[in-house]
Design a protein that fits this description.
With about 375 residues, the chain is an alpha+beta fold. It has eleven helices and 20 strands. The chain has helices at about 10-20, 30-35, 40-45, 70-75, 90-100, 120-130, 140-145, 150-170, 180-195, 255-275, 280-295, and strands spanning about 1-5, 5, 25, 50-55, 60-65, 80-85, 110, 135, 200-205, 225-235, 240, 245-250, 305, 315, 330-335, 335-340, 345, 350-355, 355-360, 370-374.
Length: about 375
């Protein structure tokens, strides 16, 4: 797959040269999918069933996978050199060490996902390759993935709109007095019918439960005059994520809750308008913080958003410690939240960074006005 006339692998090589890496080793499911372009479902569910892509600076790459995944790997990956180990009889780390040795990389600088590889596998790898210099390369992979391809942007936009529409459709199917569980089931069904392959997460809390950051829908009654916060997403077309949030007014809106929501909306729209090329993540965070104070809203969130793609929280995060500047075709979920009056108010949309300014991908006719259950 190409982006800016360079393949993902070619773009990776540019960063490898900058970091002095002779080879990178891809292990996590997200990065295996992104760089080797093969989706191995069990790689996510069974972490010791490793799938590994070896991507050298020079020479041919290699793919290592469990033998039972041969059919999937053969059908999907672009990598020609494919090797399969027998689970419970052969070690994937032995295969990795053999590949690196064959390519003359036993004493070289090896970038590897140290934040993903389990400790017992890492100890085995160091034991088999004592002269190699193993360094973390997770951030390097993040930099390659941060600029989205046109195809990725189209998938993410479609996924975001399906997710949003699933909520909006469900609002008309319930009423005050229904349970959270009934409402959440309707949203999920709408998502699956709309094209989601899987519901990846579903946070929902009404009334006092809204303040629980990761509350799960249950048999709590959605009471008239209360608020309900939803933050949810699914997987679409090759494991791309959606992530969408709204705060819904149940029945007749409580004036004090409506006032908080209206002020948050003003802040939200201002922050989105500032998402321009060259602005750093830390600067955007500061803009949001100052705007919260201007509108007399409490501000305590550690970040106000994140990039999105195959991973749910991709680099860069919109945090006060991240000085990476926004670039064209970065894609972010923006999500400042307010905790006030014992309730949490939350909205979240998908934004593309373009030369013409921010483009809202999750809502083609953007209107963050009040959503209601009546």
């Amino acid at each position: 797959m190409l982006i800016n006339n360079l393949s993902r692998y070619d773009r990776l090589k540019k960063y490898m040269e900058e970091e002095g890496l002779d080879v990178t080793v891809v292990i996590s499911p997200e990065n295996t999918l992104y760089f080797a372009e093969t989706y191995i479902m069990t790689q996510t569910d069974i972490r010791d069933r490793l799938a590994i892509a070896v991507l050298p600076l020079s020479g041919e790459p290699a793919m290592i996978a469990c033998g039972i995944e041969r059919g999937t790997v053969e059908a999907q990956t672009w990598i020609k050199d494919k090797r399969y180990y027998i689970e419970f009889q052969e070690s994937p780390i032995q295969f990795l060490a053999d590949v690196l040795a064959e390519k003359g990389l036993s004493k070289k600088k090896v970038g590897i996902e140290l934040d993903y590889l389990m400790a017992h596998y890492y100890k085995e790898l160091v034991g088999r390759m004592p002269d190699a210099d193993f360094v973390s390369c997770t951030r390097l992979f993040d930099k390659v993935k941060m600029i989205k391809e046109d195809k990725e942007i189209a998938i993410l936009s479609e996924a975001a709109n399906i997710t949003r529409e699933s909520l909006e459709k469900a609002l008309a199917e319930v009423h005050p007095g229904c349970t959270e569980r009934i409402f959440s089931s309707k949203v999920k069904i709408n998502m699956l019918n709309g094209g989601a392959d899987k519901i990846s997460f579903f946070v929902m809390g009404s009334g006092a439960k809204s303040i629980q950051v990761h509350a799960l829908p249950d048999d709590t009654i959605m009471e008239d005059g209360e608020v309900m916060r939803l933050d949810f997403g699914g997987l679409f077309k090759g494991n791309y994520q959606s992530d969408f949030a709204r705060t819904v007014m149940i029945g007749k809106p409580n004036p004090k809750y409506l006032d908080i929501y209206d002020r948050l909306t003003e802040v939200y729209q201002h922050v989105i308008s500032c998402m321009k090329i060259g602005v750093t993540a830390a600067e955007l965070y500061d803009i949001c913080s100052r705007k919260f104070k201007e509108y007399n809203l409490p501000f305590s969130t550690p970040h106000i958003g994140h990039s999105l793609g195959i991973g749910l929280h991709e680099f860069p995060m919109l945090s006060p410690k991240e000085n990476f500047a926004l670039e064209e075709n970065m894609v972010f979920n923006i999500e400042p939240v307010v905790v006030a009056e014992g309730r949490m108010f939350h909205m979240e949309d998908l934004i593309q960074i373009t030369p013409e300014g921010p483009k809202i991908l999750s809502n083609h006719d953007f209107n963050p006005g009040v959503l209601s259950i009546i």
